Amino acid sequence: MNLFAACFVLLLLLLAGAPRVAESRRHRHHHHDDDDDGGSRSPPAAAKQQRTQKLFVFGDDFADTGNGASDPGLGYNSREWRYPFGMSDTAHARRPSGRFSDGLVQSDFMAKIMGHREAPPPYTYDDWHDGIDDAGLNFAVGESGALETPAGVTKLGKQVQQLRRLIRDGLVERRDLRDSVALVAYSGNDYAYADDDTFDGLMETVVEELASVVSDLQDLGVGKVLVNTVPPFGCSPWLTRQFNYTACDDRGNAGPDRHNAALRDRLGVGAGGDDDDGGVMLLDVNSIITDLVAPNKEGSALATRFTELLRPCCEATDGDRGYCGLDDGYSLCDRPGEYFFWDTEHPTQAGWRAVMQLLQGPIMAFLGISNLEHF
């Protein structure tokens, strides 16, 4: 099913008012009410029996829900643990929870589509000697990448090794993996310092490593793997600031386009978004974000939710030295829900909700999910 057909099916389901379902967590840290963030009441027994898929999350800032270090002494590298991060997140008492946003992030909405309340708990939350959470586990950590990462940050391949060790120790059963789903939420941190001369050579290595991560997950027995395309870098506030947040930087978008084309070819993904075997799906985050935020283009109707498409809600006030979360180093908007971007590169909770609502139909078709989640 292609993207447009799947989205049409999703629209019909929305109009039909399909029931909402959720799956409770076993660990006390994660029993939250989620009144305006898509939380829902316990599903009927039949729905619980249908929703048995565990979600294993790998990646970086787009999916991290608390694996990053919280030491205030790390400054910028622990900013996700300081106000105003989390300010819109009623599921976590409007407090920072290690997410790179004002609230929920991609992995949370992916989990909701699967019938869970939010993303599975972070790998660093527990030693898991009694077994992992019923919903799965999140290995993603902010600033991660496919290649080299900052000190103390686990790169993608080693995140998969963490899962492998849990399997070896009997804490994750292989029979669970057959019905499980892996999200590889890679946003392109490896390209942060690439230029026109180095991008393509770096891209070949990055794409090969991402393909290796997917292959390793399949070898472990994971049934379905979803992989992000990288977002349009040129539409991030980091690059739109030069145009006073009125236009995307086409040059900044050229690299992601090449990466995504190479990744699609390497994974053998067709126009419909998945491979011939039905085991891998490419989540076209790039096209969705572009349709939502690129000015002067005919994009998604969901873009009308936002009064600010390219300007960040949380903006540094001291040029390159300030950042969101630095005391006296940022300005903050009054209504994050009207902004697509939270800071220089990450969507708001409302931004992620719009992205994942547009991807919900294709994801449901790929995973064989029939019960529509409203979020």
What does this structure look like?
- With 375 residues, the protein is α/β, with parallel strands linked by helices.
- It has a domain at 20-232 and 251-296: Rossmann fold (3-Layer(aba) Sandwich).
- Helix content is 31%, strand content 10%.
- It has helices at residues 3-16, 45-50, 106-113, 156-168, 174-178, 199-220, 237-240, 250-267, 285-293, 349-367; strands at residues 55-59, 136-138, 181-185, 224-228, 280-283, 308-312, 314-316, 330-332, 339-341.
- The protein has a five-stranded parallel β-sheet, sandwiched between helices.
- Helix 1 (3-16) packs across helix 10 and helix 6 (199-220) runs parallel beside helix 8 (250-267).
- It is globular.
- The model is unreliable at 3-51 (pLDDT under 50).
- Belongs to the 'GDSL' lipolytic enzyme family.
- Residues 1-24 form the signal peptide.
- Residues 25-50 are annotated as: Disordered.
- This is SGNH hydrolase-type esterase domain-containing protein.
